Amino acid sequence: ADVFVYGKTNELFVADGYFNHRIVVFDAETGKFKRAWGAYGKKPDDSYKFPARAQLIAGDPPPQFNNPVHAVLVSNDDLVYVADRTNNRLQVFHTDGTFVTEKSIAKNTLQQEGTVHNFVFSPDKEQRFLYVLDGSNKAIRVLNRQTLDTVVNIGGHAGHNAREFFHAHSFAVDSKGNLFIGEVNDGMRYY
Predict the structure, then answer these.
(1) 20 to 30 Å CA-CA from 14: which of 38, 42, 66, 149?
(2) Is this prediction's pTM over 0.70?
(3) Residue 85: burial class (beta carbons within 10 Å; 0-12, 13-18, 19+)
(4) How far apart are CA 186 and CA 165, in angstroms?
């Protein structure tokens, strides 16, 4: 679903998430497999049976990544951010796969497509903010990256007008902090 080339170690981080449920790391030059992990840094179990959606969001956090593991980013301070879209959460790891923390994003969202579709870091050297694209709720959630607390929400309405999103899917930021969003399906626009 997504890839990130981590320059410090020349590794390719792969969000292997539409049929598998894991992060896979390869040597970016040779393509040699280096390591892989699932939710909480544990061995992925693709046979895990998830409960019905209503039970999933009401119960304990699932022990496995759901389908899809939709995005992966590595920060300047060597933390790996993983979008566990259908589980309405993101998880943070060290680059070796050791679990650090997780954050639910609109945990009670019932839509099957989930909330954490994609994310980007703010362009400052410290990457103080994590911008999370919440596709189900048509919002951008700006998080303080150190605490993962929400600073502000943008949008939250479906549509084709300003500050409205139809089916936001991809996300990028430039060096000035301008956000670029691509829509899929009937959205058919970028902004």
Answers:
(1) 149
(2) yes
(3) buried
(4) 11
